[in-house]
């Protein structure tokens, strides 16, 4: 969509219908076929494969467009990984929230090692709504201390940041995984790593919006959230 002023140019359906489908698929645990039936009930006949293509196109675009509007998170990081099935294999979804449960960032990775952890932390630190952490709470995964020590040495993480390997302190992020796992379940696994990455980016960013991480789109105010997303794409709500 880069360089395209109208992200819906060439689509058979209106921006309103596309964004309605994208928002609801990324926010609720439904399959593409379920969504096609829901649209049909509104008089819109769209194939489930078309809905899949919409998610692949607009979920990562939504993630990119929402990022500058997110509230600042705090410096108490709670880090954990959960498992996602891709092509019948388990891969790792790294996730970090702050002490209040606000999502800081996420990264899907085929490996669970120090290099993956470092890549994840770098991604999180590069976001406009994050700060360099004061504390980083993780589980007993030995890769985290290695990654954090290397990043402190390189000046990427504040050298006085405290690493805590205390499992019960991470209940907040473990509970937060459930939101994403609930959305993944109806799809019965992803067919490719790219498909998974794009879809999960959409799940995560809609979760941020639902949590009220956008100042102009309060939590539980779906009408305002709809209008906010329409504005991001230059479409009438």
Features of this protein?
8 helices; 5-stranded mixed sheet; 237 residues; 5 strands; alpha/beta; 2 domains
Report the total helices: 8
SSE order, as H and E? HHHEEEHEHEHHH
How far is the first residue's CA from the last residue's CA?
A: 20 Å
Strand order across the largest sheet = 3-2-1-4-5
Low-confidence stretches: none
Global structural class = alpha/beta
Specify the CATH homologous superfamily of the largest domain.
Ribonuclease H-like superfamily/Ribonuclease H
- Let me know the average pLDDT: 93
Measured as a percent range, the helix fraction is 40-55%
Report the CATH topology name of the largest domain: Nucleotidyltransferase, domain 5
- What spatial form do the alpha-carbon principal axes imply? globular
Q: How many structural domains can be distinguished in the coordinates?
A: 2
CATH top level class name of the largest domain = Alpha Beta
Radius of gyration: 18 Å
Number of strands: 5
Strand content: 15-25%
- The CATH level-2 architecture of the largest domain is identified as 2-Layer Sandwich
Largest sheet: 5 strands, mixed
